[in-house]
Amino acid sequence: MISGQHGTRRIIRHWRYYLMVGIAQTAFSHAAPTFASPTDMTQLAAQTRAFNIPAQPLATALAAFARQSGRQMSYDPAITTGVTAHGVSGTMAPEAALATLLAGTPVHFHRLNASTLVLDRTTSSTITLGPVRVGGATTHQDPTGPGIGYVAENTLAGTKTDTPITEIPNSIYVVTKQQMIDQQPQNVQEALRYVAGVRTEGAGTYGDASPNTAGSIMQRGFDTKQFVDGLLTESTSAGETAFLDRIEVVNGPASVMYGQSNPGGLLATSLKKPTDTPLHQVSLGFGNWGRYELTADVSDKLTQSGNVRYRVAAIGVTQGTQTDHIDYHRVGVLPSITWDIDPRTSLTLTGMYMYTPGNGVGLEYPLLGTMLPLDGRRISRSTYLGLINANTQSSKDAMFEYQFSHRFNRFISFRQVFRWENSNDSNNSFYYDGTGSPGQVYLQPWWTQDRNTTTGLDTRIFGKFDTGPLQHTWVVGSDFRMFDWDFLSTSDKSGNEPLVDAFTNPTSHYVPCYSALSGCTVRNSVSRFNYFQEGVYFQDQIKWRGLSILLGGRQDWVNYGAKYENYSTTNAEGMTSSQSGASRAAPQPQSAFTWRAGLVYTLPFGLSPYFSYATSFIPQNSTNWQGQPFAPLTGQQFEAGLKYKVPHRDILLTASAFHIDENHYLISDITHSGYQYDGGRVRSQGVEVSANANVTRDLRLVASYTFTDLRFARTNKSAKRYDPYTDSSYGDALSQQGMSVPNIPRNMFSLFVDYTFPIRALRGLGINGGMRYTGTTYGDSVESFKTPAYLLFDIGAHYDLGHATSVLKGLKAQIAISNLTNKYYTVSCTSWACNLGQGRKIYGNLTYNW
Questions:
Q1: Keywords assigned by UniProt (predicted)?
Q2: Helices 94-102 and 58-69, axial angle in degrees (round to 10)
Q3: 78/253 Cα distance (integer angstroms)
Q4: Is residue 740 a contact partner of residue 783, using CB atoms and an 8 Å limit?
Q5: Cα dist. 179→134, 148, 312, 753 in Å?
Q6: What is d(CA 7, CA 87) in angstroms, rounded to the nearest whole number?
Q7: What are the contacts of 161-167 at 24+ separation with CB within 8 A?
């Protein structure tokens, strides 16, 4: 058990040890702020090549240089416009040849590393979304960077090593920066609408504006967890797309690398970091429901050599929502700085502060009146079914992170990521406390304060070596996470709960009373909880010719501090009439060993069949309504599939079939509100098909199809079927075994296409559109009724005004419309309540890059 001073001392020892390891490596390395040591420069200069490039436009000259030099280059193609390069001929070092080509032009270059050159234009700053293709060659993609168009080739998320996606034996999908720009998602849920295996409008989603991923995203039928820069997060700010460079979806168990993750998979996001080329961008946004947004994203070098760089991303937004009296407001800033201490050592510091005085979280509505009409009527999405005087939700989030890396030699490297984050929420709100006549609900005022603090550290050593014909990419690491949570709540128990009617009187002006001194009866609750998790992991990626084998394992230990819960009810005279709860013994320590194994074989023409087996583990500290603790969640998955990277094209196709078993699956307890029960073992089986493609320079698309069959495989639970029209159960109790798990659609498909017109008359203009289909879902655990399927359409357009006149160079206009037809639909329903989907949403912006 980790608690009190003993737990704090242990945390400090771990943090100090790992930090000193990193500092020690820096101290023993070269500290001069240069890109290469004299030895490296000598070796590079000795690598001469024969060049024969005549004078020609710079774009084609650079393509010839790439072919003849073997060097990788990254630059914005716009810097070559109207520029002619001098020819170069003779045998010389590649850098000398490039310098000759660029002599007399406004373009210059600097070395990013031993094999990569970055080009920039002296007369203007440029924005680079990612590496670009040069003469048939491409720079090596940053595995945490924005990708190229709609395609990312490499990832850290799947293995914690820089690995091609096609060599990882499970499904991994990347939402690139360009895709987010074209689709204009306002939160992570919206950014994942077109990803295979992911449902973003599940239970816990109410047409929200707030970028809060908790409980609203599911992978392969299981709740997801979000990791930021490789560390698990509890912060609602993690869903802010203005601070993200890319979003990765790892489908299937990932506990070997990350510890606590469900068998359905996890989300891996990367915060914005300083760029190698200058970036200056500001954007003004607007939309329906009174949305106004201002964002800024600036990155540049602080030293002449560029070895110290900074970046600042910021956002300010205010808007209403589709529901009256529910607003969304947010301001936030994300500053970061990177110091390339020497060619082998780098340190990045990142901070974040965000204030959200209105979180935009929507409401639930009665089943009768939404999914099922009540006397031919449906409740409008704009209806606020609640308390006007209990309607404030706010949060404050702060974060500090550092990333340190050092390469000892070509065999061994070191990397460490540390993050501290704190979230404070304060909500003066209500919950539905029963129903009256059809369409009526009782409101229970409820004021809560919630604080959580997370400290996490991931340290790993990794590298490459050969054993005969076998090539090994290995990693050994350890991580820990400490989580502290405090929760305080007060509810008005005066006995005069407001009753509202969704059609005749949906809004109440009742003033809640939260103090017994004011003459009312109140119920107070105080809860405190903390835990400490530590894990050690290892992995070896073995490659022989076209065959890649992945082996990995992890041991986790979880220790809990004492759990404190106290409930008291105080009347108007200040007398405590009842009290229960106290400090409870800490839950028993939990531990588990998880592992995975897989293989991929890449054929010469780019097709890569694969097979894998993996396990998962999630410790549990919650209890059922009787106070009985739940057993840890454990899962196993088999997955087989095909990945096809079209040779010499930015087209990646993925098809997979999976079989998942999870023991002790938790499901909402309808009888005891606010609790869950152990649903036994569930089985998820399905198929996913996905395409990410830059079909041409002007045409990009993403497409996906998902089939998921999630059922109770073994359970002792039973229930009667429910009739929503009579609000009563009927018939004999049925076993839940073999029944479908609620709120999981069996079929989903999506398609999104963006096209920029290449003809001169329409140059700079682009249009896009997409469709999203979600199939039917069951509303309870014995398949009593279904929530209908729905099909939604999205459209958009963008125009680079610089093509109209040079005066507007760098200015781009864009508009995006989701749910074009304003379709009324329910995303999920229980035996009495439904979540309404988001209506037509219009968002436009003007973005200026300089």
A1: Cell outer membrane, Ion transport, Iron, Iron transport, Membrane, Receptor, Signal, TonB box, Transmembrane, Transmembrane beta strand, Transport
A2: 170
A3: 42
A4: yes
A5: 21, 10, 22, 10
A6: 67
A7: 161/462, 161/473, 161/475, 161/539, 161/541, 163/473, 163/541, 164/645, 165/643, 165/652, 166/600, 166/602, 166/606, 166/608, 166/643, 166/645, 166/652, 167/541, 167/543, 167/548, 167/600, 167/602, 167/608
CA distance 225 to 261: 6
The DSSP-derived string for 132-143 is -EETTEEPPPPT
The 10s digit of each residue's pLDDT in 670-729 is 666 667 778 889 999 999 999 999 999 899 999 999 999 999 999 888 889 988 888 788
Domain ranges of the chain: 362-849
Tens digits of residue pLDDT in 436-469: 888 899 999 999 999 999 999 999 999 999 999 9
Each residue of 261-318: pLDDT tens digit? 899 999 999 999 999 889 999 999 999 999 999 999 999 999 998 999 999 999 999 9
Q: Are strands 747-756 and 699-714 parallel, antiparallel or unpaired?
A: antiparallel
Give the pTM.
0.83
204, 216 contact by CB (below 8 A) = yes
CA separation for the pair 109, 65 (Å, rounded): 13
Burial class (CB in 10 A: 0-12, 13-18, 19+), 588: exposed
Confidence of residue 25 (pLDDT cuts 50, 70, 90): very low
Which pLDDT band holds residue 112 (cuts at 50, 70, 90)? low
Q: Report the relative pairing of strands 413-435 and 499-501 from DSSP bridges.
A: unpaired
Please give the Cα distance from 484 to 441 (Å, whole number): 35
Which amino acid does the sequence have at 521? T
Distance separating alpha carbons of residues 815 and 846, to the nearest angstrom: 9
Give pLDDT tens digits for 604-641. Answer: 999 999 999 999 998 887 777 776 778 888 999 999 99
Residue pair 247/272 in contact by the 8 Å Cβ criterion:
no
CATH classification for the domain delimited by 362-849, as one of 3.40.1190.10, 2.40.170.20, 3.20.20.70, 3.60.10.10: 2.40.170.20
| Cβ proximity of 297 and 321 under 8 Å | no
Burial letters for 98-111: b for 16+ Cβ neighbours within 10 Å, e otherwise?
bebbbeebebebeb
Q: Is residue 74 within 8 Å of 119, Cβ to Cβ? A: yes
Residue identified by tokens 């201002």 is 294
CA-based nearest residue to 120, from 272, 276, 325, 348: 276
State how far the Cα of 840 lies from the Cα of 260, in Å rounded to an integer: 37
